[in-house]
């Protein structure tokens, strides 16, 4: 049905762009590497005969025209950006896998009723510009253009300037219009499919998330001449909070995850008691009520910890989004397809956010997962068996074909 | 005896170089601000009639020639660099205070037997290039030239290149030769003088220190899709260690101080479990045996904490130096001077390192402290009463006069 060797060759070529010494890849959004990856993707789509365009957020599209040009289109894709020292599958597999499915359709002489559009969304990871999924969020009304354009990376570079610098600022008129369905294939990034030995995951929804920035303020002092008893060390306090958040998440329920991924101290030198410590919290839960309850519990935990001291703290929400449930219709279609192909499959909920989460706001969205070896992702060890990938892309091929002809 | 208004005016002018919005100063070693501060200091020394020179580490000297040019010289000074968002007294007071003392000697027609040399040492703080006190360490045989020249700041800039860039790379032949005594006046940077309402501290010695770099290695993973139970979070482990180190220091003895001032995670993004966490430890103790025992205790504490887990850790020593005892003779001279001037004084041990610590290796060194309001230093609130400063500089004036004539 599909040409797995061709997909594998493209994945290998793409993996060279931003390759790290240990077999991973660093391809931050709107970086020089991202630019090269985008150009290669556009070149491949044009070779396949797709009609390419770029919108004002740098999202890239490639259209296979359907027989009925007036009908809402079927869309499929994911993202090309990665986290620092990320893996070779997160995002890119969904983009190049969709390209493979469409190229196979063309080769097999299929002429779909509806147009099929490939898409690669900008800054899905949120690793360079927070929050994550800026490109898909922008075209689905989650963020204003001004908000997106003024996002700053940690070096002070603005989204808009960087988008222009890599020459991928396209036209507002190129954003998606009427979309009848959106399908995203992605690696699971967790252990469930592997544990249950399933090749395909049918994703019923995505956990809600809350991203927060915490600042603990104490007193900067000399590390050599300030007795321990006279200190208000913001890092020691932050360390207590980080431990408590981790314990809290471990003991709350199996679906709660909370992570402190980034931390900085000020003045940040070896011989000063840190006056200020800032850190991030990424908290997720698949249940809406538990998400909002958990956010309050975290804030309370921080408050309680700081209250007992002469330090102070602030918690700023960067971005919160409630859990999303995908289209039942699409899940059913995916399940039927897996059955008829005898692919071992499993229904699950994604802990990770995806562009499909925002696309669900404007259309019927659905996701297919393939297993992650040892559940690893956002690291260089990220990997997936090629037999599983083949099952996933063949499923995608059939699902797109059906959606484009109904 | 001295002109406190002139000193105050110079301190005010110097404080403008690198001034921060909240009344502090950021003047990192070998920065553009350091260059301007150095030039101003050289200009002032030349106006006073001193013979200036710069050595191959950027240490700056200004000589008041004595009647007997062949005799070992008396030296006084400190440093002009600061920590980020530091205060207006740390270092610069010892430099400009010594200039004031020497200018007053000249004005009063004193012709000392020995030459008196002012000095401002390079990179005392260790805030830009670790370890601290590179300039004084280099000229006292603590570090090789190659070691100093290849020190890197956190942006990858080399000491040597930066020294050349600010045009302060002088001649090796300009290093100090025979020195009969070295005196450094400094702010206490701790609370003791203020608590006991003394204007002058006679410093008997400096605590030993050990600077270490710790790395905790776990496993980077996706923050949304990795269950809490499957994580090896290096930051959660580091947080436990940081808390334990702080508790250990609090409970060990009153003289133990241990500080974690800097911490970074990798990949360092909001949505990845930190695979690696690096942090610094600054541990000090005035007793030699306790210093080395404490270092082992810290290493053991880290080992024990990590042993229970599937994470690993390494501890690298950046620099360790045993406690230093200053010259009894100089302490006695200082005490006699304070008594005859009726300055309230107190003997103490410095928790902070100072250039005098290394100068003690090549001559008889001694230090005078003036109180720090609320014990604050390495922060923008750093402050000292001008009456106390006057007591300190008048003491310095007499001590230098006596040392230069014996
Ligand atoms: N799937 C994925 O890695 N998305 C990045 C944004 C997130 O962490 O939810
Ligand atoms: N006095 C002072 O702040 N020195 C910096 C080096 C050290 O921390 O010991």
TrEMBL record, chains A, B:
Q: Gene3D superfamilies of this UniProt entry?
A: 3.30.70.360, Zn peptidases (3.40.630.10)
CDD domains in the record:
M20_bAS (cd03884)
- Is this entry keyworded Hydrolase? yes
For this UniProt entry, the molecular function terms from Gene Ontology, in alphabetical order, are: hydrolase activity
Q: Which residues form the Peptidase M20 dimerisation domain?
A: 207-308
Q: Which UniProt keywords apply?
A: Hydrolase
UniProt entry tagged with the keyword Nuclease: no
Per the UniProt record, one Pfam family is: Peptidase_M20
Into which family does the record put it? Belongs to the peptidase M20 family.
Q: Give the PANTHER family listed for this entry.
A: ALLANTOATE AMIDOHYDROLASE (PTHR32494:SF5), ALLANTOATE DEIMINASE-RELATED (PTHR32494)
Name by which UniProt lists this protein:
Zn-dependent hydrolase
Record organism: Halobacillus shinanisalinarum
């Amino acid at each position: 049905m599909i040409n797995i060797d061709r997909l594998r060759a493209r994945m290998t070529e793409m993996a060279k762009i931003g390759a790290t010494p240990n077999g991973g890849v660093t391809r931050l959004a709107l970086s020089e590497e991202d630019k090269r990856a985008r150009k290669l993707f556009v070149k491949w789509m044009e070779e396949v005969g797709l009609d390419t365009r770029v919108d004002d957020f740098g999202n890239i599209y490639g259209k296979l025209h359907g027989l009925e040009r007036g009908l809402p289109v079927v869309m499929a894709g994911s993202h090309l950006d990665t986290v620092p020292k990320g893996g070779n599958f997160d995002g890119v597999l969904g983009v190049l896998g969709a390209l493979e499915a469409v190229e196979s359709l063309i080769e097999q002489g299929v002429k779909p009723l509806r147009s099929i559009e490939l898409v690669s969304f900008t800054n899905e990871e949120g690793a360079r510009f927070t929050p994550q999924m800026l490109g898909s969020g922008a075209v689905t009304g989650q963020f204003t253009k001004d908000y997106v354009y003024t996002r700053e990376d940690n070096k002070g570079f603005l989204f808009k300037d960087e988008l222009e610098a890599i020459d991928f600022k396209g036209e507002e008129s190129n954003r998606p219009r009427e979309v009848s369905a959106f399908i995203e294939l992605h690696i699971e990034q967790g252990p469930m499919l592997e544990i249950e030995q399933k090749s395909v995951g049918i994703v019923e929804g995505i956990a809600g998330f809350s991203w927060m920035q915490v600042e603990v303020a104490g007193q900067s002092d000399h590390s050599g001449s300030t007795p321990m008893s006279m200190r208000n060390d913001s890092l020691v306090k932050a360390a207590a909070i980080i431990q408590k958040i981790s314990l809290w998440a471990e003991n709350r329920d199996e679906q709660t995850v909370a992570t402190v991924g980034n931390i900085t101290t000020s003045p940040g030198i070896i011989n000063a008691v840190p006056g200020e410590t800032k850190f991030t919290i990424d908290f997720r839960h698949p249940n809406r009520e538990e998400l909002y309850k958990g956010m309050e519990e975290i804030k309370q935990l921080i408050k309680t910890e700081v209250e007992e001291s002469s330090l102070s703290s602030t918690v700023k929400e960067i971005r919160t989004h409630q859990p999303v449930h995908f289209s039942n219709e699409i899940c059913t279609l995916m399940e039927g397809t897996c059955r008829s192909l005898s692919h071992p499959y499993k229904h699950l909920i994604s802990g990770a956010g995806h562009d499909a989460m925002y696309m669900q706001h404007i259309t019927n969205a659905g996701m297919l997962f393939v297993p992650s070896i040892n559940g690893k992702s956002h690291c260089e060890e990220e990997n997936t068996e090629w037999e599983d990938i083949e099952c996933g892309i063949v499923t995608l091929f059939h699902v797109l074909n059906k959606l484009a002809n109904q």
